[in-house]
Amino acid sequence: MIEFHQVHKTYRVAGKRAGREIPALQPTDLRIESGQIFGLIGHSGAGKSTLLRLINRLEEPSGGRILVDGEDVTALDANGLRQFRQRVGMIFQHFNLLASKTVADNVALPLKLAGVRSRAEIDARVAELLARVGLGDHAKKYPAQLSGGQKQRVGIARALATGPTILLCDEATSALDPQTTASVLQLLAQINRELRLTIVLITHEMDVIRRVCDRVAVMDAGEIVEQGAVADVFLHPQHPTTRRFVLEAEQVDEDERRDDFAQVPGRILRLTFHGESTYAPLLGKVARDTGVDYSILAGRIDRIRETPYGQLTLSLVGGDIDAALAQFRAADVHLEVLR
Amino acid sequence: METLATLFVNVDWYEIWQATLDTLLMLGGSLLFTVLLGLPLGVLLFLSGPRQLFDNRPLYALLSLVVNVLRSLPFIILLIVMIPFTVLLAGTSLGVAGAIPPLVVGATPFFARLVETALREVDRGIIEATQAMGATTRQIILDALLPEARPGIFAAITVTAITLVSYTAMAGVVGAGGLGDLAIRFGYQRFQTDVMVVTVILLLVLVQVLQSIGDRLVVHFSRK
Ligand SMILES: Nc1ncnc2c1ncn2[C@@H]1O[C@H](COP(=O)(O)OP(=O)(O)O)[C@@H](O)[C@H]1O
Ligand SMILES: [Mg+2]
């Protein structure tokens, strides 16, 4: 478990504009349970990287305490910090592989640094890691010979080398195309499942959160403005920033949509299904029972991690609209009356 | 052979061979010490530089000043100024041994700057990734920075070696021997154009060979 207790960070800019202070992270409390995939979403400059890098102290906190499995990492000395960092893997947007070393030597590096001497032990571990990320045949290649997705897989293998319990991912898929992003996310989910690894993942895409995360925190201007289970945050966003991210993910323009709805007669409501209810034949039944006519104005059916969800915006005309609303309320769906 | 002999009447091939050997010895010896001294100096310059691992303004300013002063001194002046120090160090200010100390002092600051630049070219992300693995500063330098900067360092060695070739020619002035000395004493002062042509061709060949070895190493270690 990772805990933040009133952790804050202010950068002091050196050089020409010396003395200028940038408050990158406001005093923050945060709990990340072990074994979770925890997403951090926010626009550029929101303070996501700062928060992430405080966990392995690539940045020193300006104040507050960070506990990992009960251990105060803000109190570690240089030696303790190095030991601790071997238990925390990290992957990066631009991979940060050593161009001068082969794939195998890149993955072996953390082991060498940790003082593993036996060549046989290193070779065996590297082979196992490369097999896990699906790069068994690429051990002797250099990073320049790999695609972006393959480079990130090497990054993941390298981050796992010393058997960490936490994996930090700073925009790990932001430099990849959508298809490669999907396969890297799938690999992260698999690692999380099989190694019971806690993953903290930064992104600016809600879609990444929706696909792999258990919980999410939304950051804005150095603060966590909303957090919770992904399904709750994604389906019922509260903060304006969160709303924008969700709409972005659905590729919806809110103003355009409002204008469109103004043309439509009747009541407008939004139904949100999650889990089993997503595939239940609710609409037809309500229409038959109450005599209302409905038309679908907007809709989406997809998955949050493994669980299906649906979100439909309907207009209702004719029949007994109040009875229809009552039936929806009684059913296993979330109802919002928009107009 | 007839024509060669008539073309180069003044050329004493044995002397040319001796001079070539002297040049190679001066070059090899001075390059060795330049790299041995300049590499750590370059690493120190890099580490103490602004926003680097050991960011230390006073140290960086001092090292920078020393390097800049030595680099701005014309080599010919350095040669003369250094004579007492050279005698102390090499036992003589003449010959190959006497040439090496001024050559090293002349080339080391230049090489150190090039090493600093090569290290700066290494992506900061590499240092960060290595730090995140729990590396010590020593490990970051030896296991990440230097291997990553290897192409740049080989390019720096190449440029330095070629600069040293022209310095060895100047060192001839203080009795160091070598091809440059031959060119000046016979080719220039005695108007023996054939000697001049032969030495210049040999120096040219030497520079070409150094450059192509250097280029090959740079390409090899770039791993592209
Ligand atoms: N090393 C640094 N020195 C000074 N300011 C920084 C540094 N790193 C980040 N910042 C500033 O802190 C704020 C948050 O940055 P960051 O955590 O990188 O945001 P994000 O990852 O969400 O884009 C930004 O205003 C950024 O300019
Ligand atoms: Mg960032």
UniProtKB/TrEMBL annotation, chain A:
<dbReference type="GO" id="GO:0016887">
    <property type="term" value="F:ATP hydrolysis activity"/>
</dbReference>
<dbReference type="InterPro" id="IPR045865">
    <property type="entry name" value="ACT-like_dom_sf"/>
</dbReference>
<comment type="function">
    <text>Part of the ABC transporter FtsEX involved in cellular division. Important for assembly or stability of the septal ring.</text>
</comment>
<dbReference type="InterPro" id="IPR003593">
    <property type="entry name" value="AAA+_ATPase"/>
</dbReference>
<keyword id="KW-1003">Cell membrane</keyword>
<protein>
    <recommendedName>
        <fullName>Cell division ATP-binding protein FtsE</fullName>
    </recommendedName>
</protein>
<keyword id="KW-0067">ATP-binding</keyword>
<comment type="similarity">
    <text>Belongs to the ABC transporter superfamily.</text>
</comment>
<keyword id="KW-0813">Transport</keyword>
<dbReference type="InterPro" id="IPR018449">
    <property type="entry name" value="NIL_domain"/>
</dbReference>
<dbReference type="Pfam" id="PF09383">
    <property type="entry name" value="NIL"/>
</dbReference>
<dbReference type="InterPro" id="IPR041701">
    <property type="entry name" value="MetN_ABC"/>
</dbReference>
<dbReference type="Pfam" id="PF00005">
    <property type="entry name" value="ABC_tran"/>
</dbReference>
<keyword id="KW-0029">Amino-acid transport</keyword>
<keyword id="KW-0472">Membrane</keyword>
<dbReference type="GO" id="GO:0005886">
    <property type="term" value="C:plasma membrane"/>
</dbReference>
<keyword id="KW-1278">Translocase</keyword>
<dbReference type="InterPro" id="IPR050086">
    <property type="entry name" value="MetN_ABC_transporter-like"/>
</dbReference>
<dbReference type="InterPro" id="IPR027417">
    <property type="entry name" value="P-loop_NTPase"/>
</dbReference>
<dbReference type="InterPro" id="IPR003439">
    <property type="entry name" value="ABC_transporter-like_ATP-bd"/>
</dbReference>
<dbReference type="GO" id="GO:0005524">
    <property type="term" value="F:ATP binding"/>
</dbReference>
<dbReference type="InterPro" id="IPR017871">
    <property type="entry name" value="ABC_transporter-like_CS"/>
</dbReference>
Automatic annotation (TrEMBL), chain B:
<dbReference type="GO" id="GO:0005886">
    <property type="term" value="C:plasma membrane"/>
</dbReference>
<feature type="domain" description="ABC transmembrane type-1">
    <location>
        <begin position="20"/>
        <end position="214"/>
    </location>
</feature>
<dbReference type="InterPro" id="IPR035906">
    <property type="entry name" value="MetI-like_sf"/>
</dbReference>
<keyword id="KW-1003">Cell membrane</keyword>
<keyword id="KW-0813">Transport</keyword>
<dbReference type="GO" id="GO:0048473">
    <property type="term" value="P:D-methionine transmembrane transport"/>
</dbReference>
<feature type="transmembrane region" description="Helical">
    <location>
        <begin position="59"/>
        <end position="83"/>
    </location>
</feature>
<feature type="transmembrane region" description="Helical">
    <location>
        <begin position="153"/>
        <end position="175"/>
    </location>
</feature>
<comment type="similarity">
    <text>Belongs to the binding-protein-dependent transport system permease family. CysTW subfamily.</text>
</comment>
<feature type="transmembrane region" description="Helical">
    <location>
        <begin position="24"/>
        <end position="47"/>
    </location>
</feature>
<feature type="transmembrane region" description="Helical">
    <location>
        <begin position="195"/>
        <end position="214"/>
    </location>
</feature>
<dbReference type="InterPro" id="IPR051322">
    <property type="entry name" value="AA_ABC_Transporter_Permease"/>
</dbReference>
<dbReference type="Pfam" id="PF00528">
    <property type="entry name" value="BPD_transp_1"/>
</dbReference>
<dbReference type="InterPro" id="IPR000515">
    <property type="entry name" value="MetI-like"/>
</dbReference>
<keyword id="KW-0472">Membrane</keyword>
<protein>
    <submittedName>
        <fullName>D-methionine transport system permease protein</fullName>
    </submittedName>
</protein>
<keyword id="KW-0812">Transmembrane</keyword>
<keyword id="KW-1133">Transmembrane helix</keyword>
<feature type="transmembrane region" description="Helical">
    <location>
        <begin position="89"/>
        <end position="112"/>
    </location>
</feature>
